[in-house]
Fold these 2 entries.
Entry 1:
Amino acid sequence: MAPIQATTTGGVSLVSTTIGPAYEFDGLTGRVVVGDAPEFQFRAGQNFSILAWIAPEQAETSFGVMSIVEKRKIGGITSALGYSLHLEYGKLACQLTTAPGFHFDVRDLASPKRLLANWQARKQLQGVNRFISPQPDLRDDHFHQVALTLERDSVTGGKLYVDGKVVLMFDPTKVRGSLLNSEPLMIGTHPDSTLHCAFKGKIGGVRLYRRALSPAEVNAAR
């Protein structure tokens, strides 16, 4: 990926840590913003992965959410077009919301009802799809490697990793449409300023890939 320029505002600073340079967020006003770029834009069917190192602390936030990486266009709680990697009450989670359009696969062709339903919904956002790991709670102020990998045509192609281990496997085929939006990439902050979902702790080593990393590649990045 090409070098990127990040803008920091509020209560965030760049610090030296055991994993190298990382941003330390105050859990209130700290934010890192990176302008929109082709490397962050994932069209329909595009596989991708997100990796980061995080050392979150305990904090009270809206819905228990602490944002790690966000690239979403917010138009209400049910229409957040794009993708995010975040914590929910300390557990690793992600959200995926695709753009309107007619998306189908061979299973839809075998079911007239499914095909009709997809056609009728072609002008609607596909809803916020939340995938939340059952464990562990990462708010221990220690660094953990976290990752999201998506092979979008596979029913087992969605994986969340913590410290190299899969903590959740999910079916991403229902969100195979475009995730494109023109919003910037945000680290440690939520795009909806009316919510308090700021990250408290440290985030470093953020990487985005335009492919689904294998388990071996996720481990090799540790």
Entry 2:
Amino acid sequence: MRVEPLVPDVPATTANSGDVAGFARALDLLGDALTGASRAEDDFAYGRGTLQAAVYERAQADVALSVATSTAQRLAQAVQSILNMQV
């Protein structure tokens, strides 16, 4: 019998579960998305940008904010479950 190893389609990443800098980078990226959306809307209002760009940037920022909110809610539920455990 011959066994061949499975090779994933995506490159392997090494995630450090205690990486505080990664959390800070994620918050910075979320802030950048929201800032970019505001900038695109301002550009449209002042006649420098297009409506398509403003809508696209706002949609991206809304999705990023929705994912961040969902993640925070899940984390809060997990912590609450742990705190409610009887020892």
